[in-house]
Design brief:
29% strand, 7 helices, alpha/beta, Nucleotidyltransferase, domain 5, five-stranded mixed beta sheet, 10 strands, 36% helix
Length: 244
C-alpha cells in the first residue's frame, strides 16, 4: 500500500511517499517560500517518476491541514481532495503542527511548536511525550496565540518538566518565558520553521494501520483546512466593516 503525504502550511513544501507502518520510499522538501502553487505539481510528478510510480499506484493520501497561512494551507488540501476524489482513494488529515512536533518524539516531557503568525503571535500547539511508555498526547490544541499568552499556557502545563521548543517563533517564546522567570528546563530545540513529510507520513500511516478491515479514511469533503486566522484581506476589511 503506497501512501502519499503532503503539506504546504509553512514556508516548506513537503512531500513523501511511503507505506503503512511509516516506511519511507522517498521524500522531498522545498524551502522556497511563496512558490508552493508553482512548484507543487512539478515536484510531485518528479518525485513519483524518480521511484517509478504513477498516480494509479497511490492507495491513500495524508495531508497536513495547518494551521498556517490561508494561501499556503489550501494548496495541499485542495490537491489532496482532488486526487482522492479522482482516484477513489481515502484521504486522512493531520495537524501540521503535530507532524512538526513528532520530529522530537524521542524527548520525555513537553514539545511545543510555535510558528510565526506575525503581529507578535504564533501558530502553536503542545504535546506530552514519554517514549518509555509509548505516550504521545496533546497538551494544547492547535491555534493562533499571542506569544505572551502562549508563554503563560506553556508555563501552566509544564509543572517543571522539560520543554522543547520548535519553530521560527521558538526563540521569541523562550524569551517570553525567561522574562517571567519560567525559562528553567526550557530548550530551543529547533528554531527553523521546519515541516517534515516523513513525520506527516508516520502519523498518517499509524492512523491507517489502526483501522480495521482495510483503509477507510474519511469522506473527501470532510477534510477542512485549519487557517486559525482570517485571510489577510479579510482581516484588514473587518475593522472597516465594524466601524461602519
Amino acid at each position: 500500500m503506497v501512501i502519499l503525504a503532503m503539506d504546504t502550511a509553512t514556508d516548506q513544501l513537503s512531500l513523501a511517499l511511503g507505506r503503512v507502518g511509516g516506511e519511507v520510499i522517498a521524500a522531498w522538501t522545498s524551502a522556497v517560500p511563496k512558490m508552493h502553487a508553482t512548484l507543487f505539481h512539478p515536484l510531485l510528478d518528479e518525485l513519483l517518476a524518480t521511484v517509478q510510480l504513477g498516480f494509479d499506484d497511490i492507495d491513500a493520501i495524508v495531508v497536513g491541514v495547518g494551521p498556517g497561512s490561508y494561501t499556503g494551507v489550501r494548496i495541499a488540501v485542495t490537491a489532496a481532495k482532488a486526487f482522492a476524489h479522482t482516484l477513489g482513494i481515502p484521504v486522512l488529515s493531520v495537524s501540521s503542527l503535530e507532524a512538526a512536533a513528532y520530529a522530537a518524539h524521542a524527548h520525555k516531557g513537553f514539545i511545543v511548536v510555535a510558528w510565526d503568525a506575525r503581529r507578535s503571535a504564533a501558530y502553536s500547539a503542545a504535546f506530552h511525550c514519554d517514549p518509555a511508555r509509548a505516550l504521545w498526547e496533546r497538551a494544547l490544541p492547535d491555534g493562533r496565540r499571542e506569544i505572551a499568552q502562549l508563554a503563560e499556557e506553556v508555563a501552566a502545563i509544564a509543572h517543571g518538566d522539560g520543554v522543547l521548543l520548535l519553530g521560527n517563533a521558538a526563540q521569541a517564546l523562550y524569551d517570553a518565558l525567561a522574562k517571567t522567570g519560567r525559562g528553567e528546563r526550557v530548550t530551543v530545540f529547533d528554531a527553523r520553521n521546519f515541516m517534515s513529510g516523513e513525520m506527516l507520513l508516520k502519523l498518517g500511516s499509524d492512523a491507517l494501520r489502526q483501522q480495521q478491515n482495510g483503509v477507510r479514511g474519511v469522506k473527501v469533503h470532510g477534510i477542512v483546512p485549519n487557517y486559525s486566522q482570517a485571510a489577510e484581506a479579510q482581516a484588514r476589511l473587518s475593522p472597516r466593516i465594524q466601524g461602519e
